[in-house]
Amino acid sequence: MCVMHDDGIVEKRSAKAGECEMAHIDSLWAATANDHRIRPALEGELTTDVAIIGGGYTGLSTAYHLAQKQVGCVVLEQQQAGWGASGRNAGMVLTGYKPSIDSLASKHGKETARELLHISVEGIKLVETIVREHRISCSLENCGNFDAAFKPAHLEALKRNQEFMQTNFGYETYVIDKERMKREEVNSDLYHGGLVDPHSYSFHPLNYALGLADAAEANGAVIYDRTEVTGIAKQGSEFLIRTSSGHVRAQHVVMATNGYTTSLAKSLAKKMVPIGSFIVATERLSREAVERLIPHNRMISDTKNFLYYFRRTPDDRILLGGRVDFNGKEGDALFGQVQQSLIEVFPTLAQTGMDYRWGGLLGFTLDFMPHIGQTEEGIHFALGYCGHGASISTLMGKLLAENVCDPLREKNSLERLPIRTVPFHSQRALLLGVASFYYHFVDKYF
């Protein structure tokens, strides 16, 4: 991987963790990232219209859309643009949300569910538009996704959702049985068939983040890497944002930290639970081997609550994520469990080497839905993607930019969803303990 400093010096660096303090983590995506430059840290003080905290998809998209409106903005990223979940996810650009659309209709009504579905599709279209207009090299492909039924009852639930979507919204998906699944989608005995959604995409997640950062800067946004925000204070009609080496005065603040939200924004930290998710990627396989395992190159996840998600990669590996952790601590034992999950899905890979392993934090809310809005102090935010943020986060950035520029604009159904506070201290510990037990035993075996 080559990185270019702002002084024009190009430095060849390994993407391996620990060899460079500010390098992206030891992921497949970091090892195959496009050449990019290391941006300087903020030093001293500056004044701008909007200060954006967090350099992932949400923050970068907010900056991109604000800059298009000729609104002055800066992005303050503690590590490097794309360093968090935006550069570490599985690269699955999916329609929908963690809850199924028919379950959202039962809870919120059909018209709200219809709009929520439309919003998720709009997010994918926005990603496609940005990639095309700025010629971002990120392997974007309309490959579709496959929901693999872990139990026979799950296949029936997928059929009900498919019928609901087709009948009420004209949204076309289709359900297949186990034998067809093994021939066409997932050559595994673990599942009982599933649902194909041809509308989803795949991409190289870090390269998309890097390209989005470049596009934001090309429009006039300013991005600072290695700039930790240490405090936010409201002073009259403006905010003072203190950093590790300077400060920013801004009329507006956007918090775009999702799973990495800390007590810096206490009211937001209480709205969500950060959960670790971990991934392994095999050594390179033959094209024949990966096509035999996943013939149509879909993005695949199963129907367990704590699911496995897996795919082929552009360089012919199998990537799988499937071990959540409520402490976010990595280690050999944890990644060994992820590898065993991969072997559970594809036993023929038992002797296959693993070239990459990495993890990061996801942001989960109590209703498993993303949320957008403003805190009582007036800080704009979007968070809680629950593992479905690859495209909706880009759309959230566009909505955040619109909220800054037009606070009285009419809000859509997603923006109107109320966000609840997560029980903390002993209640939160109990909540996570129950969830951990559910992951290890109930969800997998019953």
TrEMBL record:
It holds the Pfam family DAO. It comes from the Bacteria. One of its GO terms (cellular component) is cytoplasm. Residues 49-402 form the FAD dependent oxidoreductase domain. PANTHER family: FAD DEPENDENT OXIDOREDUCTASE DOMAIN-CONTAINING PROTEIN (PTHR13847:SF281), SARCOSINE DEHYDROGENASE-RELATED (PTHR13847). This is FAD-binding oxidoreductase.
